[in-house]
Specification:
alpha/beta, Alpha-Beta Plaits, 22% strand, 6-stranded antiparallel β-sheet, single chain, 5-stranded parallel β-sheet, Rossmann fold, 294 residues
Length: 294
């Protein structure tokens, strides 16, 4: 079994071959290209763990490659190591701000590069407790946190589901979809911080399936706030000019905001599936499309 997949993007043919031979000899599955646009295409079909790439390329630069990778749901978790002769601090900071896992300047030590890449792949393969878009707990981490919390006190599970997020992404793009989910997470956190100062848990059961576990005494206030604000927040992500168009353009997306609530009992609710069932059927709260919100 291969140690991992590495894509090398380097327009220096001799260096690219050297890197390819080196990582193949250490058990990695390797592909090599000299062009940025071809790198993006390869990543979409053959998703690597790591891209080792120069910044200066004959077509698009390395920064643009990273932006393309981050806009695609299949490739946004790919790690990027910049390998470049550009030593200026501003270049390095720009690469790291884009999300590169490392920035190595030429000339470099091949063994050191190998260790850095190996460490980066191991780090990327570790389970990540927080969703990178919303910064909320992912399902597995949510499970561990939740069941250690509800052993004491009275807790309510409040669930918020955005139906139609995939159609929204297809219509407006992945960046808009991410921004929408990030905004909803922010609204949820603001409501929790406003109404409770104690323990609370927020996480994701699915990409657009939010779960809040909150003290029962504060649940009604938090629910009322979110019923009012979630739909308004979602509506901001439909371009303002489109609200004047009637009827809605055929094929334009519709987001349905649904909510469910259940009082938790650790004797009954022993798994996340139990909690999901307890909060169903979900109640329709808002419908948002290019015509507005209802």
């Amino acid at each position: 079994m291969a140690e991992g997949r590495i894509l090398i993007v380097e327009d220096d043919v001799e260096l690219a071959e050297t890197l390819g031979d080196y990582f193949e000899s250490r058990g990695y599955e390797v592909k090599v290209t000299h062009l940025g646009e071809e790198a993006v295409s390869i990543c979409r079909d053959w998703v690597p763990e790591i891209v080792i790439q120069d910044i200066r390329l004959p077509d698009i630069d390395g920064y643009e490659v990273v932006r393309h990778l981050q806009q695609n749901v299949r490739t946004r978790q790919v790690g990027v190591v910049f390998l470049t002769e550009l030593t200026n601090r501003d270049y390095r900071l720009r690469g790291l701000k884009l999300g590169a896992v490392d920035y190595i300047t030429k000339p470099f030590d091949l063994e050191e590069l190998g260790l850095r890449v190996s460490n980066a792949i191991k780090a990327l393969q570790r389970p990540r407790p927080f969703d990178p878009i919303t910064n909320l707990l992912r399902r597995e981490a949510l499970k561990d946190e939740l069941f250690s919390t509800i052993k004491k006190g009275r807790w309510v599970a409040l669930r918020i589901v955005l139906q139609g997020i995939e159609d929204f992404r297809d219509f407006y793009g992945f960046v808009a979809g991410d921004d929408l989910l990030r905004a909803v997470a922010l609204v949820i956190n603001n409501a929790l911080n406003r109404h409770t100062s104690g323990r609370k848990i927020t996480g994701l059961l699915g990409e657009a399936d939010f779960l809040l576990v909150i003290p029962s005494r504060e649940a009604d206030r938090i629910e009322a706030t979110l019923r009012e604000r979630i739909g308004k927040t979602v509506s901001f992500f439909f371009p303002a000019g489109e609200f004047a168009r009637l009827p809605a353009e055929e094929g334009s997306p519709i987001i349905k905001v649904k909510m469910g609530k259940a009082l938790l009992d650790q004797q009954v609710h022993r798994s996340l599936k139990d909690i999901e069932k307890a909060t169903e059927p979900l109640e329709l709260v808002s419908v948002i499309n290019v015509e507005g919100r209802s």
